[in-house]
Amino acid sequence: MTEGEGSRFGHTSLPAAQHNALVRAKRLEWVSLAYLITGAVVVYLVMGSSQAMKAAWIEDLLSLIPPIAFLVAVRRARREPSVSHPYGYHRTVGAAHLAAAVALLFMGLFLVYDSGSGLLAGEHPPIGSVDLFGHTVWAGWLMVAAMVYTGIGPVILGRLKLPLAEELHDKVLYADADMNKADWMTAAAAIVGVVGIGLGIWWADGAAAIVIALSILKDGWQQLAGATRDLLDGEARTFDDSAVHPVIDDLLALLRRTPWVAEGGGRVRDEGHVFHAEVFVVPHGDLSVEQCEDLAAAVRGLDWKLEDVVVAPVAELPPALRTGPIGLQREE
Amino acid sequence: MRIGRLLAGLLILIGLAACGSIPRDPDGTLEQVLDDQLLRVGASPAEGSVTFEDDHAGGREADLVTAFAEELGAEVSWTLGGEGELVDAMERGELDLIIGGLAADSPWADKVSLTRPYRESTELDGSTVKHVMAVPLGENAMLVRLERFLDEVDR
Q1: What percentage of chain B carries pLDDT values higher than 70?
Q2: ipTM of this predicted complex?
Q3: What is the per-residue pLDDT for A327?
């Protein structure tokens, strides 16, 4: 999956660093898909009637969604804006993000219910043997082996994807990397459950399944909160949603440095990968079109993500505008 | 730190696994059979597999079970009855093993543990039946011991 010359998100052509990150990220996601599919097949073949293995298998299947969403989203988001889609197709990322979050959330709920009711009913999970090349082997060992396989790969892939998610400001990729990084815990929980059954502790399996289900639920909730904030045009935040994006501070500093700006503020929202910025300025005295355009160009120069910039001269700043540096102004 | 502790826990578990025999029965069915030298078998009549003869069962499956009991050094105590009754008795902990023409697609699978199919037969209508036996639900040591026995008879 290599790009021709220059990748783009809408009419934003990516700088070299982002272009390379995108090419790498796509390759990693294809590798992830291949790995996850083999993992899901292996786990399906050995899972038997262990609840923890079933939960781990479902998580494997769910973790197919973010890579697919990412690959679809970057392809879609490449499209140029048009009259009918003046903001471009960047929101594809948000839609994909929301879809992944909802899938996680409901699967988590289902698994908590499914494992919890089995545990309350006191179901003793049966795990028999398999005939492996003429030897009768307890199937639990195969499950442990399958979990070791599915646990190792995603941890490595997740760590490789994380810096790319920051570089590309891609929240789907970030969600994916974050889930991958936590995958080993799912595998470990399933192993504890299966070995627990082996030791005659029948509830170990159900308990492990609930732990896995809760981690899926937590992921789903976090992702849903993040995806919804962006779809509601919340102020742009960093790729991991941990803070207001620093480029907004840069924008405000630029306004203060511009001599003809008496008062200024901005609304910056995350379209997915790229930002859409509306900059409001109250000028000292008269203002020329050229001054306005120069300011817009300067804003665009702050970050590759700032491409769609509108500068609006006004007599009075509209309400709910960020005007002071982050940290000094109270968040609503 | 948390990773380290989890790994340590895993290692302890695997260590335990290597020492003790895995899997174990949560309710100790196999141990009890070995201790009491008594295998409590429920049998329901099934054509070609289980026949009733006075107070005990005969037929192919009954012979298999008698040989299995011998391997465990146990006597067989027979309970003859219908499938439903026997499954209820097993859930109450009164039986260790059920035979009687059970098939792999048996509706009892959520009440008792079914073995892997040990034999396939073709019925008159051309369908294939996979024959299984049943042990108490989740008594995995018992299950694996029986499956191993059936595998070895097969080989």
Answers
A1: 86
A2: 0.81
A3: 61
Q: Sheet holding B75-80: strands in order across? A: B75-80, B38-43, B97-99, B134-136, B112-114
Query: Cβ of A201 under 8 Å from any chain B Cβ?
Result: yes
Domain B24-154 coded CATH 3.40.190.10: yes
Which B residues, 120 through 149, put their C-beta within 8 Å of a C-beta on chain A? 136-141, 143-144, 147-148
For residues B99 and B41, is the Cβ–Cβ distance under 8 A?
Answer: yes
CA distance A125 to A201: 10
A197 to chain B, any CB pair closer than 8 A? The answer is yes
* Cα-to-chain-centroid distance, residue A156: 17
Q: What amino acid is encoded at B124 in this protein?
A: L
Query: What domains sit in chain A, N to C, each tagged with a CATH number?
Result: 8-231 (1.20.1510.10), 233-332 (3.30.70.1350)
pLDDT of residue A3: 42
CB A268 within 8 Å of CB A277: yes
Distance, C-alpha A164 to centroid of its chain: 12
Q: Is the peptide bond before A126 cis (omega within 30 degrees of 0)?
A: no
For B13, the closest of A125, A138, A192 (CB atoms) is A192
What does the pLDDT look like over A81-96, one tens digit per residue? Answer: 899 988 888 888 788 8
B115 touches chain A (CB under 8 A): yes
Q: Which of A51, A124, A127, A191 to mutate to test the interface with B (most CBs of B within 10 A)?
A: A124
Contacts of A223 (CB under 8 A, 6+ apart): A97, A100, A101, A104, A105, A175
What pLDDT, on a 0 to 100 scale, did the predictor assign at position A182?
75
Which token pair is A23? 């090419």
Four-residue CA torsion sign, A243, A244, A250, A253: negative
Closest CA to B104 of B117, B95, B91: B117
**Among partner residues B14, B24, B155, which is closest to A200 by beta-carbon distance?**
B24
Query: CA B134 to CA A266: how far, in whole Å?
Result: 72
Average pLDDT, chain A: 87
**A165 close contact with B: CB closer than 8 A:** no
Would an 8 Å CB–CB cutoff place A69 in contact with chain B? Answer: no
The answer to whether residue A143 neighbours chain B at the CB level (below 8 Å) is no
The dihedral region occupied by A166, where left means phi > 0, alpha psi between -120 and 50, and beta the remainder, is alpha
Residues of A in Cβ contact (< 8 Å) with B11: none
Helix (H, G, I), strand (E, B) or coil at A242: coil
Q: pLDDT over 70 for what percent of chain A?
A: 96
